[in-house]
Amino acid sequence: MLFRQLFDAETSTYTYLVADPNAREAALVDPVLEQVERDLKLIRELGLTLKYCLETHVHADHITGTGKLRELTGCQGVVPVQAKAQCADHFIGHGETLQVGSITIEAIATLGHTDSHMSYRVHGDRVLTGDSLLIRGCGRTDFQSGDPGLMYDHVTQHLFTLPDETLVYPGHDYRGHTVSTIGEEKRWNPRFVDLQTGKLRSRESFIALMNSLNLPQPKKIQEAVPANEQCGQVAAAV
Ligand code: FE2
Question: Where are the domains of the chain?
């Protein structure tokens, strides 16, 4: 398997390239509009064909590159079921799998940051968690139909039940981290764990914590959400 973590410095967003070099098929997870040329150049240099662009959710902090990549390559745009993105080619449900050559990608529902969020388990040994589980953190739950109770249920039941050695690749990082493991996050993630005791917080304590964060709105939310609902098409100025 060929696996690359790509970074957009302006929004601290990770895009992932997953490919089977023998079958020459590739998928991109959470591409960023401003990085489409970088991603396409890499895919071409590696001699790959882009089969899928997958979204973990409708983003509020950047505009997706999926629409542009679909236009340029004919790849399929895949978004979680119930996502408000009418232009997607396929809506993927919990437990559904996609094939990229011999690599299996499995969708795992991780709602809570938004009401239609998927993580993607790749090749059985790593999980791309979007804005659900981050390294020593998690996505916010205070807008876009966010729900801290659902975030707690899905992270603890769908992600913390994966083998401890499973690699965790998040959708963002703001502190320079690139990768973690499920075992590490189950012990050291301060949103989910009481670090004094090492035990999982209760659902109530997690909800209270998330509801007390008072975070500022993302800079691009006004343009990003409507554009992403149109698969990355920016409305023409009137
Ligand atoms: Fe997000």
Answer: 2-216
Digit-coded pLDDT (tens) for 31-83: 999 999 999 999 999 999 999 999 999 999 999 999 999 999 999 999 999 89
Q: Which residues pair with 15 in a beta bridge?
A: 6
The fold of 2-216 is: Metallo-beta-lactamase; Chain A (3.60.15)
Burial 8-31 (b: 16+ CB within 10 A, else e): beebebbbbbbbbeeeebbbbbbb
CA angle 190, 207, 159 (to 5 degrees): 60
Q: What is the CA radius of gyration of the chain?
A: 17
* Res 225 pLDDT > 90: yes
Ligand 1 mean position, distance from CA 11 (Å): 11
232 CA from centroid of ligand 1 (Å): 14
Three-class DSSP category at 123: coil
Task: Identify the DSSP state of 217.
Answer: P
